[in-house]
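Before going further, it is useful to explain how the protein records used in this thesis are read. An example of such a record is reproduced below.

***
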Amino acid sequence: MERSSLREHPTTLLDIILLFHQINGMIKTQIQVPEKQYAALRQFAAEREWSLAETFRRGAELMMDVYPPHPAPKEEAWVPPSSASVGWKGLDPDALKRALTEDREPTLSRGA
């Protein structure tokens, strides 16, 4: 049997799995969740007699129903304030340096 005909007539486990996924329209994926969340999800699924996969699918469907498909367009883009409109008001550079020096934590001087 030629390699190309394997897809038409599955003969290996991998071919059967690939065919199964094509028929059911599902994609197999792997995710990581924290241990506490995993335990809570297993209990949640067991109480409802669902598989973990079904629990995640239902969770994904709920998220897509609750959240809008695209973020709402913003009325206008946010622009950060210019440096002229922020900072210390009314202090010249020397007064600002004195205020900084007076507020500094004491340090040990390195003596010779």
In short: The radius of gyration is 31 Å. Residues 10 and 17 are 9 Å apart (CA to CA).
